[in-house]
């Protein structure tokens, strides 16, 4: 099998001045944060891509912790008991594509998605796994979540920065306390902080939800017109004393920020109340379901790359399970693998299949590519340990980057496929071995981005978007 990595030089953050770092800290404080983001993007822009990008987009559902491939999409009912687990596979409407019995909604729409079973890499730590998967590069350190190369979403934001949609072009949805770019290795590294995602924390289906940075706080709404008038008043004075064009440039960024803040298109994109109650029910009145629905609305409105994190199922009225765990990290010390799955899988099943069906029902299946994955799979062999919360012995699985499964749909691709396979115990790829880079090459191709293109890093060295990788032939658009 060909090598999974090509050696790349270690990178360090930059080029960002101390002033820029301080200014970046203000991102997320409202209109000023938006204008700073726009200005930083212009200051750090070294290569501009013409706005000739196709009208395509990506929804990336991130499952941090590592979903158990042998409990979801790559079940091995004939494997020894210590490998196969307790759940049984069930047939879908596609011959040869079976899924876990806890995913019944997957069975009725399997003809609209593909399952890849043969992606692998070599980083078993969460930090290393996140960085390896999300950047398409071998990280300088096998641990830690701070990127030394830009995440894919940041590359997309860079390449498509001139695609105007009256709302941020790269958006992420996370828990309120998990909004930092380094929580999931979403950092832009040497591209600079303006290419990190515009974060939308919280449950978008919750009563009173508002989009920080785009929504106008009620206490400020009455003053918005006054503020706009004040800015216009200062324009005349500033232009009279500024002959360098700096003030004029700043006006442009503030105007863009004001446009985003007051844009009807942006407001409507984030407003889930415009959807029918029936559709919202189909997605699930839960944070994961409503995030998935918001993702569809954002790409429909013109966003290029939307990342939604589905991490903690114990919210939106779901009672915490003592034998459960926060994310998909199903070590035996963290949770009872099978009891946690009984809560987690049905919520996931509803949200993801609703998104798949909605994309196709609305005719977005050629425009939008959907990718659903975590950073790695779980150990094929089950182990038992005493649970930290339960105090009793319980089953779990550990980290396993040597094999993982993921769901992909849309993008004009042929669907109803199982791509690749693992050996009889789910340990490693058997057929069609792939890497995360092959997935990202497919994503870049869908977006009209040349993944062999290079950007200069902080020292001026040309850094290719992907050091290796080829589009997955089975996922290319069909005529």
Q: How would you describe this structure to a colleague?
A:
- It is a single chain.
- It is globular and about 55 Å long.
- The strands form six sheets. The protein has an eight-stranded mixed sheet with strand order 6-5-7-1-8-13-4-14, with helices on both faces. A two-stranded antiparallel ribbon has the order 2-3. A two-stranded antiparallel sheet has the order 9-12.
- It has 14 helices and 18 strands.
- A hairpin with a 5-residue loop joins strand 17 (454-456) and strand 18 (462-464).
- The chain has one domain (45-215, 270-475): 3-Layer(aba) Sandwich (Alkaline Phosphatase, subunit A), CATH 3.40.720.
- The chain is an alpha/beta fold and 479 residues long.
- It starts with 17 loop residues before the first helix and ends in a 15-residue tail after the last strand.
- It has helices at residues 18-24, 31-44, 69-72, 81-84, 126-135, 152-159, 218-221, 224-241, 246-262, 264-269, 277-283, 287-301, 337-361, 436-447; strands spanning 57-62, 89-91, 98-100, 114-119, 170-174, 198-201, 305-309, 368-373, 377-378, 383-386, 393-396, 399-400, 404-410, 418-419, 421-422, 429-431, 454-456, 462-464.
What is the number of E strands? 18
CATH architecture annotation: 3-Layer(aba) Sandwich
Strand percent estimate: 5-15%
Provide the domain count.
1
The CATH topology label is Alkaline Phosphatase, subunit A
Question: Could you list some keywords that capture this structure?
Answer:
Alkaline Phosphatase, subunit A; globular; two-stranded antiparallel sheet; alpha/beta; eight-stranded mixed beta sheet; disordered N terminus
């Amino acid at each position: 099998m060909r090598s999974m990595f090509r050696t790349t030089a270690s990178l360090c953050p930059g080029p960002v001045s101390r002033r820029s770092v301080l200014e970046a800290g203000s991102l997320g404080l409202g209109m000023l944060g938006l204008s700073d983001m726009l200005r930083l993007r212009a200051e750090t822009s070294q290569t501009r891509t013409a706005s000739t990008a196709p009208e395509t987009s990506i929804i990336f559902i991130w499952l941090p912790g590592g979903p158990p491939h042998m409990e979801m999409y790559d079940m091995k009912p004939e494997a020894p008991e210590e490998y196969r687990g307790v759940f049984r596979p069930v047939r879908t409407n596609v011959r040869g594509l079976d899924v876990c019995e806890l995913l019944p909604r997957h069975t009725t729409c399997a003809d609209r998605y593909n399952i890849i079973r043969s992606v692998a890499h070599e980083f078993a730590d969460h930090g290393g796994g996140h960085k390896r998967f999300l950047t398409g590069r071998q990280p300088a350190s096998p641990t830690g979540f701070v990127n030394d190369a830009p995440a894919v979403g940041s590359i997309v934001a860079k390449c498509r920065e001139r695609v105007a949609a009256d709302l941020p072009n790269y958006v992420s949805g996370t828990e309120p306390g998990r909004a930092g770019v380094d929580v999931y290795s979403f950092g832009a590294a040497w591209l600079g902080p303006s290419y990190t995602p515009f974060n939308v924390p919280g449950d978008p289906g919750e009563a009173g939800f508002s989009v920080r940075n785009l929504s106008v706080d009620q206490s400020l709404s009455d003053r918005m017109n006054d503020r706009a008038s004040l800015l216009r008043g200062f324009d005349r004075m500033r232009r009279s004393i500024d002959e360098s064009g700096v003030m004029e440039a700043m006006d442009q960024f503030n105007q863009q920020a004001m446009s985003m803040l007051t844009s009807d298109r942006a407001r409507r994109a984030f407003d889930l109340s415009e959807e029918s109650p029936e559709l919202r029910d189909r997605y699930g009145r839960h944070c994961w379901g409503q995030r998935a629905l918001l993702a569809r609305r954002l790409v429909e409105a013109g966003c290029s790359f939307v990342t939604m994190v589905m991490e903690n199922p114990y919210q939106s009225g779901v009672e915490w399970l003592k034998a459960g765990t926060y994310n998909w990290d199903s070590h035996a010390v963290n949770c009872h693998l099978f009891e946690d799955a009984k809560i987690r899988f049905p919520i996931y099943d509803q949200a993801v299949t609703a998104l798949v069906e909605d994309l196709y029902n609305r005719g977005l299946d050629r425009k939008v590519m959907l990718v659903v994955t975590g950073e790695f799979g779980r150990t094929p062999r089950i182990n038992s340990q005493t649970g930290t919360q339960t105090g009793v012995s319980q089953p779990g699985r550990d980290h396993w980057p040597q094999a993982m499964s993921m769901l992909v749909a849309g993008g004009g691709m042929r669907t109803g496929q199982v791509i690749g396979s693992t050996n009889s115990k789910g340990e490693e790829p058997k057929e069609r071995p792939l890497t995360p880079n092959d997935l990202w090459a497919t994503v870049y191709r869908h977006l009209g981005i040349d993944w062999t293109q290079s950007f200069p890093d902080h020292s001026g060295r040309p850094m290719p978007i992907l050091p290796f990788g080829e589009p997955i032939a089975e996922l290319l658009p069909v005529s």
